[in-house]
Amino acid sequence: MKNFKIKIAIPLIFFVLTAHIQTKAQDTTAIHPAQNNTLTLQQCIEIGFKNNPDVKQAGFIAESAKINYNQSKANMLPDLNAGITHTQYNGRSINPYTNSYINEQNTAGSYQLSSGITLWNGSSIQNYMKQYRLNYEAGKMDVQNAKDKLTINIILSYLSVLSAREQLNIARTQAAATQKKVDLLTIRNNDGAISPSDLSDMKGQLANDQLTMVSTRNSLDNALQTLTQLMNIPYSADLQLALISDGIVIQPYEESIDQVFENASQRLAMVKAADLKVESASKNVKAIRGQMMPTLSLFGGLYTNYSSAASIQQLTGTTDVPTTNYVTVNNVKTTVYGQQSNFTSQPISYNSQIKNNVNSAIGIGLQIPLSNNMQFRNKLKLAKVAELQVKEQAQTTRIQLRQAIVQDFVNLNADYSTYKLLLSQAEDFGQSFHAADIRYASGAISTVDYVIAKNNLDRVQLNLVVAKYNYLLRTKLLDFYQNKALW
Known about the structure:
Order of helices and strands: HEHHEEEEHHEHHEEEHEHH
Helix content: 55-70%
Structural class: alpha+beta
Low-confidence stretches: 1-36
CATH superfamily: Outer membrane efflux proteins (OEP)
Number of domains: 1
Radius of gyration: 44 Å
Number of strands: 10
C-alpha cells in the first residue's frame, strides 16, 4: 500500500489539470456516507465540485474579476451627476441674485446637473476593458483548474480506497485460510499427532496475516478519510464505492507522448489560464502607455439657483414731490414739482427663480501630462516586468506539463511490465502453493515449508492488486489529459 501511494503521488500531484469536464447540477451534496449509498467516481467528483473550499474560493475570485470587467465597460460611458447646495447667510454677504452686498440673513440654493465623457486618452480605457475581460476569462479557467486538481486528487484517493479494500479482502481470505489450518492443527496437536512446533509456526503465520489485515485496514481508513476530506463530507468507514477495474484490459497505451501533450496543451484549463494571463499583461502595458498620452474630454451642465434675498420692485402709484428746479414768476422763485413713482419690494417665488435662472454650459478639455513624478513611467516598467513574468510562467507550465506526461508514461510502462511479471509469478506461486498444500496435508513437508509457500503466494497477490491500480491510475490520468470519458 505504501508503494502504491508513493508511486501514484509523483509527479502529477502538482500538475493535475484537464480539459473541461461537463457536469450537470445534480443535488448530490445531500448524499451522506452513513446512508451506505454506493458512490461512483463521477458522483464523488461532482460532490467535491459543490463542497470543496478551494473550488469555491476560485469561484469567488472569478466573480470578482467579472465585476471588475463590468466596471471597465461602464468606464466608457458618460458620467452623470446632480448637485444641490443650500446655504444660510448671516451678516454681510453677497446677494447671489443681484451680485451686490447685503447685510441681512438670507438663504441661497444652487442646483446643477453635469455630465462628462473621455473622448480619447491613448485608448487606455479600451485596453483596460480588454485586460479585465481577459482576467475574467482567466479567472474562469482558474476555477476549472481548481476542479481539475480536485478531480485528479479524488481519482487518486478513490483508487487508493478500491486498492486498499481489495487488499483487505485478500488479507481476510488469507487469514481465514490460516485460521482453518490453526484449528486443524490444534485438534491434531491435542491428539498428539503432530509436533507442537508445527502448531506454533502456524499460529505465528496467523498473527502475521492478522497484522497484514490491521495494516491494510489502516491504509483503507486513511484513504477513506482523504477522499471524504476532498469531497468535504463527514467521514464514514461504511462509505461504499463502485468498482471501476472490472473489464479493464492491461495493455500498452494507444497514444504517444507527443499526441497526449498536444491534446493536453489545447484542452487543459491551466494552460489556457496561463495564455490568457499573458494577453492580459500585454493589454495592461498598452493601457498604462495610453495614460501617458493627452486626454481629450467633453463636458457640459445645466444650472440654476435661488436666493431668499431676491426681490422685485412693484409700482404702487405716483406722488408730486418738489424738485431742485424753480421758475421765476414776477421776480419770485417758484419751486417746480415733479412726479415720483412709488414702489414696494416683493420677494420672487421659488419656482420663478428656478425657471428664470436656468443656464447651461458645454465645453471640451485637453489634459496633457507633463510630469507626474515618474509615476507612469515606473508603472509602465513594472507592467513590462509583470508581462515577462507571466510569459515565463506560461512557458514553464508547458514544460512541466510535458515532463509530467513523460513521467506518467514511464511509470505506466513500468506498471505494465510489473503487472505482467506479477501475473506470471502469481500463477507460478499458485501452483507451488497448491502442491505444498497437498504435500503438507499428507505430512510430506514441514510447517515452515508450507508457510514459505503461502507467504510467497500472499505477497504476490497483494502486489498484483497494487500493480493493477497503479496501471489504472496512469491510464485514467492520460485519459483525463485528453478529455476522454473517465466512467
